[in-house]
Amino acid sequence: MQDIRNIAVIAHVDHGKTTLVDKMMIAGNLFRDGQDNSGEVLDSNDLERERGITILSKNVSINWKGTKINILDTPGHSDFGGEVERVLNMADGCLLLVDAFEGPMPQTRFVLQKALQLGLKPIVVVNKVDSLIVVLRKCMRWYSI
Questions:
Q1: Calpha distance 117→73 (Å, rounded)
Q2: Residue 24: which of 74, 59, 76, 75 has the closest Cα?
Q3: Which residues form a coiled coil (predicted)?
Q4: Would you say 12 and 102 are in contact if contact means Cβ atoms under 8 Å apart?
């Protein structure tokens, strides 16, 4: 019997969820060499692509060292609370993806609160740390430090 884990990804719009999931799929060898992985595997709905948000949850599976990992995409907005709860009820754990510059946003907090109420233990992933370095360098130049 194969070991299976369901992992929900919680993130605000533009905090890097698509990139993170794409890189996980590449690491899990889901793409052939040279295959276009344009970042729209989980946001395949036209309205989702147009608005840049997740409305309907989807999943993708990767195999990693003998474990099948189902990556569950979660809507990041409180308007889709029913869909959020449905997905989180299927999860064994979650990744909380936070933009280093913007920090946690209200919609992210809403989804995180639901995850914590269900007893999920999030793994915090801080993304876009390099953008903080750029801002720091600009400040240092501005103040001649």
A1: 18
A2: 59
A3: none
A4: yes
Sign, CA dihedral 50-126-95-86, equals: negative
Percent of the chain with pLDDT over 70: 75
- CA-based nearest residue to 59, from 85, 87, 33, 81: 87
φ, ψ dihedrals at 18, nearest 5°: -60, -45
pTM of model > 0.70? yes
Average pLDDT over residues 69-91: 79
For 38-60, what is each residue's pLDDT tens digit?
Answer: 555 566 666 666 666 665 567 78
- For residue 35 the two structure tokens come to 């295959």
What sections of 7-144 are H helices per DSSP? 17-27, 46-51, 81-90, 106-117, 129-142
The pLDDT, as a whole number, for residue 44 is: 62
What Rg do the C-alpha atoms of the chain give, in angstroms?
A: 17
Tokens of residue 40, six digits: 């729209």
Domains of the chain plus CATH, in order, are: 3-142 (3.40.50.300)
The values of phi and psi at residue 9, to 5°, are: -110, 120
The position carrying tokens 């750029």 is: 134
